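Hi all, posting the design record for the shared folder.

TITLE: backbone redesign
STEP: 1 of 1
STRUCTURE INPUT:
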């Protein structure tokens, strides 16, 4: 008998599961912050500079992740690079697969983003109750200190993310120099 079987056969409480942070756009990011621990992972994708999670992988991941969770709720966590580079269509397909395979479990989604690409996504995230985590480097005048290889116009500003976070929930991650 394995250790896991011993736990399940005993009167001990069932383990609460585990969390996985999926990276639907791999290490791709529109900012390339100097301090990012994940940007260097692009070397693992030499042929494909813009790796994306395929629909086939998304479906298998969704089905197996839900099935592997022993409790009544499952939280999908989307991170990057910059996960919004996967596009709204990707997240709609993810929700469709979650609905297809939920097996009566409560499904929730959390998205960690730099927020610079959020615009039309705001209504989608709010409608589907995503918890939105914004990675900020302080107020706007310090926002670009560690973002020296920035791939967006600085005039874009950060007004869009705040629109997203009125009712979806907000988790902030600050980088302090």
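Okay, here is what came back for every position:
SEQUENCE:
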């Amino acid at each position: 008998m394995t250790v896991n079987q011993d736990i399940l056969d005993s009167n001990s409480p069932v383990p609460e599961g585990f969390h996985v942070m999926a990276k639907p756009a791999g290490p791709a990011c529109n900012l390339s912050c100097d301090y990012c621990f994940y940007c260097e992972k692009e070397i693992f994708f030499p042929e494909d500079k813009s790796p994306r999670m395929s629909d086939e992988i998304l479906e298998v991941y969704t089905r197996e992740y839900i099935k592997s969770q022993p409790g009544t709720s499952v939280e999908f966590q989307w991170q990057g690079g910059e996960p919004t580079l996967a596009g709204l269509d990707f997240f709609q397909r993810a929700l469709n697969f979650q609905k297809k395979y939920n097996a009566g479990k409560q499904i929730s989604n959390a998205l960690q983003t730099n927020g610079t690409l959020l615009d039309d996504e705001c209504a989608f995230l709010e409608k589907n109750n995503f918890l939105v985590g914004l990675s900020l480097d302080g107020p706007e005048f310090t926002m670009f200190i560690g973002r020296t290889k920035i791939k967006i116009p600085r005039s874009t500003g950060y007004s869009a993310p705040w629109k997203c976070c009125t009712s979806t929930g907000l988790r902030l991650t600050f980088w302090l120099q």
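COMMENT: The first helix runs from residue 3 to 9.
Let me know if anyone wants the other runs.
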